[in-house]
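--- STAGE predict ---
source: upstream dedup step, 1 unique chain passed
mode: sequence only
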Amino acid sequence: MKRGWGVLCGDLDRRVLAAGGRLYFAKDSRTTPEMVRAISPRLDEWQRVCDGVDPEGVFVSDLACRLPLVDDRVGEACAG
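--- STAGE serialize ---
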């Protein structure tokens, strides 16, 4: 990414969030854990559901590892 683009994209993300917008996770490659928490007020609830359905972390995505959207126990699957 060329110099300055990261700052510009971060600014645009904050503007989208301020306007009530959301990220398109399927195409996002640079969002931060802080941004995900800011746009996902029910993230903790979603994580509990995922932990109940997939307690071993078999279906954990690269995105969930990168942000991280999984708890430490399941997150160990991300390291390997």
